[in-house]
UniProtKB/TrEMBL annotation:
Protein encoded by which gene: guaA
Organism the protein comes from: Candidatus Scybalocola faecigallinarum
Protein name as it appears in the record: GMP synthase [glutamine-hydrolyzing]
Lineage: Bacteria, Bacillati, Bacillota, Clostridia, Lachnospirales
Keywords: ATP-binding, Glutamine amidotransferase, GMP biosynthesis, Ligase, Nucleotide-binding, Purine biosynthesis
Subunit details: Homodimer.
CDD domains assigned: GATase1_GMP_Synthase, GMP_synthase_C
Length: 513
């Protein structure tokens, strides 16, 4: 069964993914597509509705992204947001101009609650604005449905043609009743039934994986992270022992992590699959000996992963399918990609080239992270696995500044373990995006007992973030930090100083390298 779908047509707005997530939170499947998609391609997808995103441009600038007028004549409901609303107005004969007063941030908007988009919304409601252009005159056939003190057409609609537009952003949480507006659009305007639910996703995916794979052989590189773990469990439910998971312990995992992964996916765990753990710790340490440059370390770790995986895959023989835990943001970012490379991260590139297989299987490629987690819970996976914080592919390799040695790995593992344990005990971990201990390359003088020490400084990091693109340093209660510090210097040999990283991203990054 195919899910009903809403398309988000991306005009370069920074909230494109967020709009899609919000629509999915309404239980309606939604995909982001580039504005260069042709009308025929759009029609072929048979969407129940289309949402135009915002964007940084001005519609009256010839070089800005536009869309042919015919899209408004398909009879498919359209909601234009910010730039999208101006584009709708401009294309249909309205007037868009530079606003006499720009509006940014929280803005009180007066809405016409008789308009279907604002049904159930308060007459005066706080919305998030971010615009320098505005709709000076709405197109013929449209009526103004909201205004602010400086923006005469904060929303407009033409119900006969099912066209709606808001100058503000209903998708961001600062728009207090934005979810209600989006839900009105998808249910009351587009007539969706709401068939996107995780239980049906899990069920239909297992079914279609079975059909696709038949009695073929499947190989999965399991890292223990959320995405590859959920992908492995889905596959194991679908094809059981036809699946082999290879887990490479590169010696740069958090304390006890290798054993935890083995306990879940190994022979003693609840899943029926073939599990191979490769203990490649020493191999990695010797490759990393003397290497201090962060990018070189990353490349060595990535490259070595491929070599180890390749060796194991050769032992297994030719496989039919290779599983990857690609998720939707990876798909969008590579498809519409535009950002600069700060670090050569994310996913183990190159894997497909070195293994003899027929096809890649990516069962999670249409899911956002929180949906992957919901699917994991639906599959009955333990919560501690499903709600794991992100952990970088090169692991502690990028949390040890400078050269990696076995001794330094031990230090950072032990310090990190204490930090995580204490944050959990204090109940502050659940509000954090990411938190860990890193080992600086700095040694300094201290005194323990009556002796002089010259030991390493551990840096503690904790950030609040929702998208990991920007982050703020978290304000961990002082008494918790004091306890962690005390335990680390007492229990972890080789450390005599503990520092807390107060820097946000930007200008720092979340990891240290
Ligand atoms: P940064 O340090 O760039 O990190 O602010 C943003 C997010 O990405 C993770 N990260 C990585 N993930 N391979 C990965 O798979 C990497 O090399 C890598 N470096 C950073 C980081 O943990 C954070 O969640």
């Amino acid at each position: 069964m195919k899910n009903e779908m809403i398309i988000v047509l991306d005009f370069g707005g920074q909230y494109n993914q967020l709009i899609a997530r919000r629509v999915r939170e309404c239980n309606v499947y939604c995909e982001v597509k580039p504005y260069t998609m042709s009308l025929d391609e759009i029609k072929a997808l048979n969407p129940k509705g289309i949402i135009f995103t915002g964007g940084p441009n001005s519609v009256y600038d010839e070089t800005s992204p536009h869309y042919q007028k015919e899209i408004f004549e398909l009879g498919i409901p359209i909601l234009g947001i910010c730039y999208g609303s101006q584009l709708m107005a401009y294309t249909l004969g309205g007037v868009v101009e530079t606003a006499p007063v720009s509006e940014y941030g929280h803005t009180e908007v007066t809405v016409d609650t008789g308009d279907v988009i604002f049904e159930g919304v308060s007459e005066n409601t706080v919305c998030w604005m971010s615009h320098t252009d505005y709709i000076a005159k709405v197109p013929e056939g449209f009526k103004i449905t909201a205004h602010t003190s400086v923006c005469p057409a904060a929303a407009m609609s033409c119900p006969e043609k099912k066209l709606y537009a808001t100058q503000f952003h209903p998708e961001v949480m600062h728009t207090k009743e934005g979810m209600k507006m989006l839900s009105n659009f998808v249910y009351k305007v587009c007539g969706c039934a709401g068939d996107w639910k995780m239980d049906s996703f899990v069920e239909t995916t297992i079914q279609s994986l079975r059909e696709k794979i038949g009695n073929g052989k499947v190989l999965c590189a399991l890292s223990g992270g959320v995405d590859s773990s959920v992908a492995a469990v889905l596959l194991s439910k679908a094809v059981g022992k036809q699946l082999t998971c290879v887990f490479v312990d590169h010696g740069l995992l958090r304390k006890n992590e290798g054993d935890e992964v083995e306990a879940v996916f190994g022979p003693e765990g609840p899943y029926e699959l073939n599990f191979i753990r490769v203990n490649a710790q020493q191999r990695y340490y010797s490759k990393l000996k003397g290497v201090t440059d962060p990018e070189t370390k990353r490349k060595i770790i990535g490259e070595e992963f491929i070599r180890v995986f390749e060796e194991e895959a050769k032992k297994i023989g030719s496989v039919d399918f290779l599983v990857q835990g690609t998720i939707y943001p990876d798909v969008i970012e590579s498809g519409l990609g535009k950002s600069a490379v700060i670090k050569s991260h994310h996913n183990v590139g190159g894997l497909p080239d070195v293994v003899d297989f027929k096809e890649i299987v990516e069962p999670l490629r249409m899911l956002f992270k929180d949906e992957v987690r919901k699917a994991g819970l639906e599959l009955g996976m333990p919560e501690y696995l499903v709600f794991r914080q992100p952990f970088p592919g090169p692991g502690l390799g990028v949390r040890i500044v400078g050269e990696v040695t076995e001794e330094k790995v031990r230090i950072v593992q032990d310090a990190d373990y204490i930090y995580r344990e204490e944050l959990h005990k204090a109940g502050v971990d659940k509000d954090l995006g990411q938190y860990f201990a890193a080992l600086t390359n700095m040694r300094s003088v201290g005194v323990m007992g009556d002796f002089r020490t010259y030991d390493y400084a551990i840096a503690l990091r904790a950030v609040m973030t929702s998208d990991f693109m920007t982050a703020e340093a978290a304000q961990i209660p002082w008494e918790v930090l004091a306890k962690v510090t005390n335990r680390i210097v007492n229990e972890v040999k080789g450390v005599n100083r503990v520092l807390y990283d107060c820097t946000g991203k930007p200008p720092a990054t979340i990891e240290f390298e």
